[in-house]
Amino acid sequence: MTDAAVTDRAAPDAPATDAIVETRGVEVRFALPTHFLSREKPVLHALNTVDIAIRPGESFCVVGESGCGKTTLGRAIIGLLKPSAGEIYFNGQRIDTMDEATRKPIRRDMQMVFQNPYASLNPRRNVFETLAEPIRHLMPEKSQSETRAQVEEVLDATGCDPSWQRKLPHEFSGGQRQRIAIARALVTNPAFIVADEPISALDVSIQAQILNLMSDLQDERGLTYLFITHDLSVVEHFGTRVAVMYLGRVMELAETETLFAAPKHPYTQLLLDAIPRIEGGSFDNPKPPGELPDPVNMPPGCPFTPRCAIAEERCRTERPELRRLENGAQVACHFAD
Amino acid sequence: MAMLDIRDLHVAFPSGKTTEVEALRGVSVRLEKGERLGVVGESGAGKSMLAFAILNLIAEPGRVSKGEVVFHGENLLEMSGRDIRGIRGNRISMIFQDPMVTLNPVLSIGTQMIETLKAHRRISDAEARKLYIARLREVAIPSAESRMDAYPHELSGGLRQRVVIAIALLTEPELIIADEPTTALDVTIQAEIMALILKLCRENDVALILITHDLGVVAEVTERIMIMYAGLCVETGPTRQIIKAPRHPYTAGLLKALPQFAGRGHRLYQIPGSMPPITALPPGCAYHPRCEWASAECKVKIPPLEEGCACFHPLDQTEAAS
To answer: For FRET with A134, which of A22, A155, A288, B282 sits at 20 to 30 Å CA-CA?
Structure first.
């Protein structure tokens, strides 16, 4: 990795060395089941050379359709998946190759909030047990009373009632469960949280409550978020920077304002056009179905070519690399300017 | 006479041995030919219940405890099983949320389409084939002939939902009830599917009841809107008008809470609390515990639906606009 490459990845005002989380050329491959008569060993590339640098205190959003690798990226960073290639750094330390004992103290600084609060909470554990578990596991030096105090503090910070401690998950609504899940992520005082579609399973009137809670917690505790979502209107409101992913690759990476003011990649434009708007007009012209290429046998060129309106012959053969445009956005497209 | 006239519909489920709770607590709605109505609400508000009740599909132990569903002058709820089967899937079609669940996984697309046609028409296999290839083309499925022998698992989510739409259109229905048709799909596919539904409804003059929780989708597709809360319609009227100037505090809150209306870095407007379950409804207006305008009257009396708004303190237009 040369110095030039490092500075190229991050904006000029924030060198990559300041990044709280950084991925360098991360790849995740899944071996698929082989047919018993076949010699082929099919491999699914869930992530392909992903380079991102997340700055402290920002909300870094990752958007894309299902199957684009956004959840895989979050899981690889948090350590639920081992990358097949590439490096992952947290505060300058390489974490993907660490053994479990060395990594353990770092885990309290990196926590995760999952999409579905109906599945992510253990139904047989009461709220206190759920929240005390990470402390017992990751902070064994804490005494019983310190644990209790810490649980109460985090319940208060996330707007949960102290009386909830003895209750079980089934006694709560979806919004309340997601508060508990956020409290569980916060109980070890992490600096960095991966939030994987934290509001998608919630009702509309509850989504705003959870988003506001997450912003408030960020202001109070200086949290850094990796916010994974498919909903661009949430990104527009919440994100500092956005990475648009497609079939395991970053197609565009930019400041939120820049991306929404001037989307450069045709895929970003497609995503933005698809948002249903209160003013109407997005659905007036039916489009032919957009087919994702087979992620197992990826074509050599740009993966977006089959759906792209401006694709030319070059796109079918030569894969565009991420490059920086004048407005500061990084785009993987031959024709973006 | 309206094409569909739902009058004071109640749906009840037993709770305990002798008592019942109501999932729908008296919903009335009229739909003209070719009209597109959006039904919006949170989960548990009763919007899917309404869809099922229209076709008399409420599963045991639930039942329609009161009310009528009049379709072209006939009450669907009093029809014999045989008569209503002539309407279900024929004159009124449904599109459900998850196409993987709706389609039979062990039958090819073609078989399922022929089945639908043969259930309602006297038609030869060759004719049926011609008709459904035309329909598959209409929903923009590439290489339609070769797809007929495909099984549902061989198609992507978007294509599957297109097949479901093609099946729903086969019998040339007058009304399509679409229950969250794009919730399981990606935004880009959602835009494709909703644009398609909108186009087909316009071209064939088909009425649509679109059930969704997404105000953006409703605003794009429908002409009239009905906001449901805890088993009741709290506000109804022309879509544009309601979105521009909502009168019920709940509608106003839902609209204000949308991220696209908050400036970047500003807090979102949030409605406090959550919708009560139907087993524990507060007395009076079900929304009063979350409402900033609630008065003593709201706590004891259910506000009637008057001029499209069920509220004792409707926001006036100027207030809502500010």
So the answer is: A22
User: Do B172 and B307 fall within a single domain?
Assistant: no
> To the nearest whole number, what is the mean pLDDT of chain A?
88
A285 to chain B: nearest residue by CA? Answer: B195
With CB atoms and an 8 Å threshold, state whether B140 touches A286.
Answer: yes
Together in a domain, B109 and B240: no
Q: Considering only CB atoms, which chain B residues are within 8 Å of A66?
A: 186
The CATH number given to whatever domain includes residue A324 is 3.40.50.300
| Torsion sign over Cα A75, A79, A80, A82 | positive
Max avg pLDDT among A35-49, A245-259, B178-192: A245-259
CA distance A164 to A184: 13
Same domain, B218 and B266: no
Q: What is the pLDDT of residues B277-310, one digit of tens each?
A: 888 899 999 999 999 999 999 999 999 998 899 9
Q: Which residues of A205-244 are buried (b: 16+ CB within 10 A; e: fewer)?
A: bbbbbbbbbbbebbeeeebbbbbbbbbbbbbbbbbbbbbb
pLDDT confidence of residue B225: 95
8 Å CB contact of A276 and B194: yes
Does residue A241 sit in helix, strand or coil?
strand
Give the mean pLDDT of chain B: 89
Q: State the pairing for strand pair A192-196/A224-229.
A: parallel
Kindly determine whether residue A271 and residue B187, on different chains, have CB atoms separated by under 8 Å: yes
> A237 and chain B: CB distance < 8 Å anywhere?
yes
Q: Are B133 and B148 in contact (CB under 8 A)?
A: yes
Print the domain residue range for A71: 3-105+230-331
Residues of A in contact with B255 (CB under 8 A): 278
Q: Which residues 29-88 of A have a C-beta within 8 angstroms of B?
A: 65-66
Same domain for B257 and B212: no
Instruction: Quickly list DSSP for A141-175.
Output: T--HHHHHHHHHHHHHHTT--GGGGG--GGGS-HH
B317 and B205 in a single domain? The answer is no
Of A65, A173, A289, the CB nearest to B140: A289
What would the pLDDT profile of A96-151 be if each residue is shown by its tens digit?
999 988 998 899 999 999 988 989 999 999 999 999 999 999 999 999 999 999 99
Q: Who among B140, B190, B260 is closest to A236 (CB)?
A: B260
Residue A251 has pLDDT above 80, yes or no: yes
Q: Which residue has the tokens 């380079």?
A: A51
Q: Which tens digits make up the pLDDT trace of B213-253?
A: 889 899 999 999 999 999 999 999 999 999 999 999 999 99
Residues B121 and B193 in one domain: yes
Q: Which of B191, B264, B270 sits opposite A282 (nearest CB)?
A: B191
Please state the domain count of chain B: 2
pLDDT tens sequence across B59-82: 888 999 999 999 999 999 999 989
Selection from B132, B156, B160 nearest residue B144 by Cα: B132
Q: Which residue of A has its CA nearest to B43?
A: A203
Enumerate the residues of chain B whose CB falls inside 8 A of the CB of residue A176.
Answer: 274
Total number of domains in chain A: 1
